[in-house]
Amino acid sequence: DLRYFDELEKRILEGRFDEKILDTAVERIWKLKEEYGIIEGKQVKFEKEDSYFIEAAKEINKKSLTLMNNYKNNFPISKDKIKKILVIGVTPSDKEYEALEKLPEILREEGFEVDMERNVWVDHLQWKQPNYDLVIFAMSRSFHQPQGPLDFWGREAVSIWASNAGDANKIIIANFGAPYIYKYYEVSGLTYLNAYDCHEHTL
Questions:
Q1: How far apart are CA 120 and CA 86, in angstroms?
Q2: pTM above 0.85?
């Protein structure tokens, strides 16, 4: 969705986003490509252990997290206020849903009581939400998972509708796939986080 670039340009022009941050990121990536000969089309060979790349992936994922909206101050999650969480997995991919199922495990390790469901209807959310301090919509729509446009339809589309109809004071949208899903939330103002990938190191 090219509106992402339009929105970025708009925020830069309005002074809401520092253009120097973008310049620094582009320069860093360009230097890495030059260093490894990617620009010249050379084959890249690495002589590092797997553990090096795992730790690097964790660090990259941590730094790439993007908090788009936080008007309700739902993030970071307060252990003093939040005890019981409902995670709703929203993805058309069974493989990615299995990856998202690790999120409740991680939250439980942090001391939260967590339940998880896949997709939700509007009336079902309105019935269940009062029983939880927080509802996290964990979304993932990635390239070729499955084949087709990077969008949601069917049950997943209904879940997006439900999330926008719920109590915004108790909802976080955590997107672990393509960042374009933000288009469904740029107006609603729900707490929204882009994490780009549902690998366990991101979760």
A1: 11
A2: no
